[in-house]
Amino acid sequence: MKITEVETIQLPYLNNIPWVRARTHDRIVGLGEAFCGANAVAAYIHSDLAPRRVGLDPLEPGIPVCASETLATRSQFLDVLKTDATDYVMLEISWCGDHPDAVRPSTRAT
Predict the structure, then answer these.
(1) Cβ atoms within 10 A of the Cβ of 103, count?
(2) What are the tens digits of pLDDT across the range 43-56?
(3) Amino acid 63: pLDDT
């Protein structure tokens, strides 16, 4: 499986959320999103990220995976980290609890 296309999508009614869609030659489509700085994110994807990722296998090591802040609890983050399902986590303190609750899963990753 190889990535054949990486594109960004910005919807008029959600103009601060850039969506990223990656397609493979096997017709598999991956969708991701960021929040804030939509124009800067889209520019980076088109100028730097997409040219380096097209032609690569998305399942091969070397393409980092980030777990979202929508994993709301410490145990959800720990489950993801224990299975090596992600390379990075984005902790949202207001969802995960106070500072000590955020530090515990982040130190598990090291």
Answers:
(1) 12
(2) 988 998 888 889 98
(3) 64
90-93-99-104 Cα dihedral, nearest 10 degrees? -40
**How far is 74 from 53, CA to CA, in rounded Å?**
32
Express each pLDDT in 4-61 by its tens digit.
999 998 888 888 888 889 899 999 898 887 777 788 888 988 998 888 889 988 877 6
Place of tokens 């145990």: 75
**Residue linked to tokens 């530090």:** 103
Taking a C-beta distance cutoff of 8 angstroms, is the pair 77, 67 a contact? yes
Which of the four pLDDT bands, split at 50, 70 and 90, describes residue 102? low
Cα 51 to Cα 69: distance, rounded to the nearest angstrom: 27
Rounded CA separation 5/36 (Å): 23
Strands (E), 19-106: 19-24, 29-33, 66-67, 88-89
